[in-house]
Amino acid sequence: MGMLAVLGGGFGIGLWYIVARGDAKLAIRQGMSPEGLRYGSNQPGFGNAKQQINAKLAIVEERRRARELAQGRLAQLEAERNVAKQAANRSAQEAAEQAREAERLRLAAIAQAQAEADAEAQRAEDEAERRRREREEARLAEARMAQIAEMEAQRQAELDAAEAARLQEIESARQAEAVQSKQAAQAAMKELQERLEREGARSSDVQVSLMWNNFNDLDLHIVCPSGERIHGGNKISKCGGELDVDANVRPETKKPVENVFWPEGTAPAGQYQVYVHHYKKHKKRRSRDPTKFQLIVNSVGDVMEYKAALTHGDPIMLVATFEVPSMAERRRKQKELEDQIAALERGEELVVTPEAPPAPPQTEQSEALVSELNERLEREGAESTFDLPSAPDLDKLSDGSSDQG
Fold this sequence. Notes:
about 400 residues; alpha+beta; Lipoxygenase-1; five-stranded antiparallel sheet; four-stranded antiparallel sheet; 5 helices; about 15% strand
């Protein structure tokens, strides 16, 4: 653009110079050519100037082209230098980046190695601490086990001593209880024998006796295996049993007894049921309830004692059941007794397992019998009838021995 401006300026100056010269003479005629233009000095006219101008313009254009070529070349060289410089910069940057990356990797490797070394050292320290704790815990555990074993041995020794003392106390109490029970049984049997002898009662191998200690009227009822009932209204039964003592129909004695027996060897084999009925409370004698009583059953040598209590108005109570063995069983039992006696005479020790008396069963037969008893009691003038009683808790009812009658 600068060259064009310069050339344009030069062209304008040239035109001004041609027009402004005073010696220029124009031959204006038909068919005048540029070469006809002559100056006053006879120098070439406008056509020559044009040629010169064209030559100069060509020179100027050539130079402009040369400058443009030079500028293009310079620009190309500059571009190539810039490209090379940029490539060099990129190479330098890449080299620097690679160097930085290598340094970073080296530092990271160093840090990782240091971390691994620290971790390994920490693991070794932790392992050492763990082993130390395990040794300490094992030592403490052994000490605790030893202490526990010692305490357990001491506790076991104390338990053994306490158990031995308890067994000794139990044995002493058992012996004392056995002595008291034996004494009580002996006293009861002695009292029973005195009352039976006083009333002229009879004894046999199968016998049921009832005694109490006030003026109230208790009645003894026994149901035989055949279903027949022995009581005050049926004193002599078809099954062979006999009620030979019926006490306190009137308030006669404070130590009454009732007795049912079968002549020796005549009691039918089978199950018997024993009931006790509080028939009447004699108010004139100021007898108090509940009335405690004792029932003694002798079934071919098996003597059983029951204790309970009744209040007037209570249901008739099923107190006991017992079995009378057949004659063959009696002979077998007699043989066993003879063998035991013979063993005792030889000095041998016998182990006898006591048999608990059977609990009174609550069966349909018992319900029917109680219903029949209630009906008969009503016919015989009893004050009330009663429902089927439950089996009594004889131990609970018999606690204490004071006379309340």
